[in-house]
Amino acid sequence: MGVLDGYRVIDLSIAMAGPLAAMRLGDLGADVVKVEPVTGEWQRHAPAGGATGNRVNASFLSLNRNKRSLAVNLKSDEGRDIVHKLAASADVFLQNYRPGVAERLGMDYDTISALNPRIVYVSMSGYGETGPYMARPGQDLLLQAMSGAMLSTGREGDPPAPAGTYAIDAITAYSAFEGALAALLHRERTGEGQRVSVNMLDAAIAVQMQELSIFTVGGVPQRRGREPHGHTYIRAPYGVFATKDGHLALGMPRLDALAVAFDLPELAGMDGDADGHTRRDEITAIVARRLPERTTAEWLEICARHDLWAGPVYGYADLVADPQVRHNGSFVTYDHRTEGTVTTPGFPYGLSAAPPAVRRGAPLVGEHTRELLEELGYPADRTAELVAEGVLACED
């Protein structure tokens, strides 16, 4: 039994941030109904990395487990009515439409909360639902660029570089997940539903609480140096360095200990907190010249012996084979109706009493339409008529 067993989530979201937030609720036991067009949600037709799958691509598969699919035309009166009936007894309603779309479809907060005053309505957007940027596309790379984070790494003069993951999508998803859980707790205590507003811009700003506070409170400018550096506000050495056979990640080791471990006496008299910032380029260059003399494994052994923070640089093949990753059970493997045995990332948290679990794989388009309509009291012949009229789509 999951923590959210007995709760129902209506998920009208697309792409990554919304579906990921809804999936996390499903991982905790909620009955998540994915409401998608009769042709299927956008992510079904935009396979990341070209991993198309048999009938469900890898990106959709990764974001939509523990959900049931209702394929319905929301531009039809009866299609809207079906979703309204589901919302009337639901606990969470989540959407990430462009501004104005929810209102046109009758899926806005005023409409849904009038049907169900106890609903937790999660509205997700790129830049906010009002203001000068409300109509801009809320896409991960664009928000990474605007957030300022790209200029916290790298070398002066080098072009800004995006993160190697969809960082802002993920941060926004977890913000929505957190907001939904907080609103549910509020409802348990007061009986009141409410609107939860989440936007990618604010999420990208909030996650940089240290960096931006250093700038706004400490008045320290965001300055990249001449040498490659992992973060403008962390003292040197900090970053990834070339070794004899690969690379080593080195995380702000104590300079006195580093001087001994790496046989770099020029570092011995330096003050880590002061010189580590003001002489960042010099320190980085000294360390970079030394590391190609040994292999990554040799440096890792030396760093471990001297209690210095260091680690290997992995690709995905290295990651999935790592013994700690295997020990943690960081990936989950299960059987999917059309994709066979699949392995995907698992859960970012553990609960001793009611752990998250995979109860069903990502659904096919309309796989649960008949089931959900039956739960709403629709007779089978009426559902068949709605399918024939194009209001619904079913996976037979």
Automatic annotation (TrEMBL):
Top-level lineage group: Bacteria
Keywords on this record?
A: Transferase
Instruction: Output the SUPFAM superfamilies linked to this UniProt entry.
Output: CoA-transferase family III (CaiB/BaiF)
In its UniProt record, a GO molecular function of this protein is: transferase activity
| A family per Pfam | CoA_transf_3
Note whether Magnesium occurs among the keywords: no
InterPro entries, alphabetically? CoA-transferase_III_domain, CoA-Trfase_fam_III, CoA-Trfase_III_dom3_sf, CoA-Trfase_III_dom_1_sf
Q: What is this protein called?
A: CoA transferase
